[in-house]
Amino acid sequence: MSAIRLSFAFAMLALLAAPLAAQSGKEIKFRDKVTLSVGESVVIYGYRGECGALPADGDIELPSPKTGTLTTGKDGFRDSKRCKGKTPAVEIIFTATTPGREKIEIQGDGISVRVKE
């Protein structure tokens, strides 16, 4: 196989791999409302990078909620309006630490949080 054909084959394979990567792993569901007791944790969001790619570790910007903490979890995929379909994402996990209510925003999406004793 010529070098040009081989290069073309690898380029086509890379283009096909992006949509497949977006569908590998677990689907991460967006939760616009959560109610938890202190000490409980739940995946609330799928943080995406550029369409078709996971976000780089340094690109994940999370707020500092008053009622809990936010951490990253496993890689998966989410449905994205911006990307017009499924795209790779990283789980964002909320852990309830302090009773109260608040609204947090991640990548422009609002999430209402209620933490009970």
Keywords:
alpha/beta, 7 strands, three-stranded mixed beta sheet, 1 helix, 117 residues
Task: Please explain how this structure is put together.
With 117 residues, the protein is α/β, with parallel strands linked by helices. The protein has one domain (3-116). It is built from 1 helix and 7 strands. The protein has one helix spanning 3-23; strands spanning 26-27, 33-37, 41-48, 68-80, 85-96, 100-106, 109-116. The chain has a 4-stranded mixed sheet. Strand 4 (68-80) and strand 5 (85-96) form a beta hairpin. The radius of gyration is 18 Å and the shape is elongated. The model is unreliable at 10-18 (pLDDT under 50).
Q: How would you briefly describe this protein structure?
A:
This protein has 117 residues and is an alpha/beta fold. 18% of the residues lie in helices and 47% in strands.
As a percent range, the share of helical residues equals: 10-25%
Rg on CA atoms, Å: 18 Å
Distance between the termini: 67 Å
The shape is elongated
The largest sheet has its strands arranged as 1-4-5-3
Number of helices: 1
Mean pLDDT: 87
Number of folding domains? Answer: 1
Helices and strands, in N-to-C order?
A: HEEEEEEE
Which spans of ≥5 residues are poorly predicted at pLDDT below 50? 10-18
- Structural class of the helix and strand makeup? alpha/beta
Main beta-sheet strand count, sense and barrel state = 4 strands, mixed
- Strand element count: 7
Our estimate of the beta-strand percent is over 45%
